[in-house]
Design goal:
Elements: H1 7-29, H2 34-39, H3 46-57, H4 60-73, H5 76-100, H6 109-115, H7 118-151, H8 155-203, H9 209-221, H10 240-257, H11 259-266, H12 271-304, H13 317-320, H14 323-330, H15 336-370, H16 382-407, H17 416-419, H18 425-440, H19 446-464, H20 466-470, H21 481-496, H22 504-507, H23 528-532
Length: about 550
């Protein structure tokens, strides 16, 4: 893509890389303890954490997919996301965050160890590492495909460059660097959307959202297969109801099962800050998701009214993903194209740095456990622990880059939106399901929980690739993969738990229904409010 841009665009990209390097150097010079490296000393401002959560979850997958998906399904995905986020907000604020902030864990999967047992904890760690490697691999692949396609650059070269740049700058700074870089990158993502919207409005004589929506409706009305807005048919590709259900399950599992998100809540000192951070993430996510859909509407108007020549076929799902980056290169004036490119790069880097940092954190905590160094008086020497985390970060980056090459052969003719639940999110539901069973099904024991998670993964894979596995004439909609898998997890956990019951030590203080009891875990892993509560003196 750089070869297709003017020198002004080159300068913008170089400036962006230089700013990242400068931020990495600044945070690398700060003296760090292990808690500073992994959790930023639990002292990050809530607004920064909220923006970091938003940047982590909104990767370049979303940044490229949303404008392209408008050509496929209009406003369907935006309306579905609004429904999901509104429904999810109550659960996260009232149940998830208050429960998790009672503990002072570094790794979320420590909870699984106390709630179920060591085997469940190890399973959670393995599933999480697989989730991150495949997710980040897909982020790298998607970003690299876009750059390769519009810039006529070798795909392998772009994959290696994108994957390793994100890894290297994460190694030096730790969690505090990751969070503040995410804040900077959110500003770039927002700015990239605004640049495109203002440019289309200016070049088209002052048109704006109502004009763009009308153009998109006209385009959708002329499609051979009209869109169905509300349907529970498992073979209907995308509707408001099913997309909203899928996104609700994704958000729920992400906020209880994904270390990349939960680790950010652990960086804050109290429950009130964590809630403010979450609401900041919700607001920023709704804003940028809306802007991305508006960009898609604007591009429909731009190309359908002859303001630019579209050489791609928007009815082809994979080619539709390339409409936005193609617009950056061929339509925007010199300098603006590079500015929007940095927004896409920021979306990719913010997710990659969060992923590799989270893997390093989780595996460092597991190393402590295996060496018997998981109590304050036995913590390992700080430099040794940080050195180990940096080695893991580098190894994770290499695995992610390798995964990108493997995923290149899996996607077939599916677009980004369809591949997300059919790839890395198959690992998310089993992890989220494990934590949700631990919180809300007190009698469920370890063997049943592990069986439920494994069968949830199997169910996700079967739903994702049912057409190839069972020879179906049509492909099951991608929107049913996550809800179907989570339903299997809960059914097995609820009924199997009737025969495989947890012990009192695995329930006391470790489920939503027993949280007034003092959990039988080391005192340093409890928040101060739990130390001071009357129930903790029993």
């Amino acid at each position: 893509m750089l070869f297709a841009l003017a020198w002004q665009d080159h300068a913008v990209v170089v400036l962006y890389v230089g700013l990242l390097a400068g931020m990495g150097y600044y945070f690398a010079r700060r003296r760090k303890s292990a808690e500073e490296y992994f959790l930023a000393g639990r002292s990050v401002p809530w607004m920064a954490v909220g923006l970091s959560i938003m940047a982590t979850l909104m990767s370049s997958l979303t940044y490229l997919a949303e404008p392209g998906e408008v050509w496929q399904s209009g406003l369907t995905s935006l309306l579905g996301k609004f429904i999901a986020i509104v429904a999810e907000t109550g659960f996260v604020l009232l149940f998830f965050i208050p429960f998790l902030m009672r503990f002072r864990f570094t790794s979320l999967y420590e909870y699984l160890g106390y709630r179920f047992g060591l085997e469940a904890r190890i399973l959670g760690v393995v599933l999480f590492c697989c989730l991150v490697v495949v997710w980040m691999g897909f982020v790298v692949l998607t970003m690299s495909r876009a750059v390769s396609a519009v810039g006529q650059l070798p795909l392998a070269l772009v994959v290696v460059t994108v994957g390793m740049v994100g890894t290297v700058y994460t190694i030096v700074g730790g969690m505090r660097a990751v969070i503040w870089k995410d804040v900077f990158q959110v500003v770039l993502m927002f700015g990239g959307c605004v640049i495109c919207l203002v440019y289309v409005s200016w070049i088209s004589g002052g048109t704006w959202l109502p004009d763009w929506i009308a153009a998109t409706q006209d385009y959708q009305a002329g499609r051979a297969k009209p869109l169905t807005l509300v349907s529970l048919d498992p073979f209907t590709r995308n509707t408001i109801v099913t997309f909203g259900l899928m996104m609700f399950v994704w958000h729920a599992c992400t906020h209880v099962g994904n270390q990349m998100v939960v680790q950010r809540y652990f960086t804050m000192s109290n429950l009130a800050s964590a809630r403010r951070g979450f609401l900041t993430a919700v607001g920023a996510s709704l804003l940028v998701n809306s802007l991305l859909v508006f960009v898609g509407l604007a591009l429909v108007y731009f190309y359908r009214n002859g303001y630019g020549t579209l050489t791609l076929d928007p009815t082809n799902k994979k080619e539709a993903d390339l409409i936005f980056p193609t617009f950056m290169v061929t339509a925007l004036p010199p300098g603006l194209g590079g500015a929007v490119l940095t927004a896409v790069l920021s979306a990719a880097m913010s997710t990659i740095d969060a992923g590799v940092n989270a893997i390093a954190t989780v595996l460092s905590v597991e190393r402590r456990r295996m060496q018997g160094l998981d109590r304050p008086e036995t913590l390992p020497e700080q430099r040794t622990e940080i050195r180990f985390a940096r080695i893991i970060t580098l190894a994770a980056g290499l695995l992610i880059t390798a995964a990108a090459f493997g995923l290149d052969h899996l996607t077939g003719d599916r677009n980004i939106l369809e591949m997300m639940p059919r790839s890395f999110n198959c690992f998310l539901v089993p992890i989220g399901g494990l934590v949700l069973l631990g919180m809300f099904v007190p009698y469920c024991g370890q063997r049943t929980a592990i069986l439920a998670a494994v069968m949830g993964f199997v169910a996700a894979g079967n739903l994702a690739y049912a057409q190839a596995i069972y020879g179906l004439e049509q492909e099951v909609s991608f929107t049913w993969v996550l809800p179907g898998a989570l339903l299997i997890v809960f059914l097995i956990g609820m009924f199997g738990g009737l025969f495989d019951r947890s012990t009192a030590a695995q329930r006391d203080g470790l489920t939503w229904f027993t949280q007034n009891q003092r959990p039988q875990i080391p005192p340093h892993l409890l928040a101060e409010s739990d130390h001071a509560s009357p129930s903790s003196e029993c």
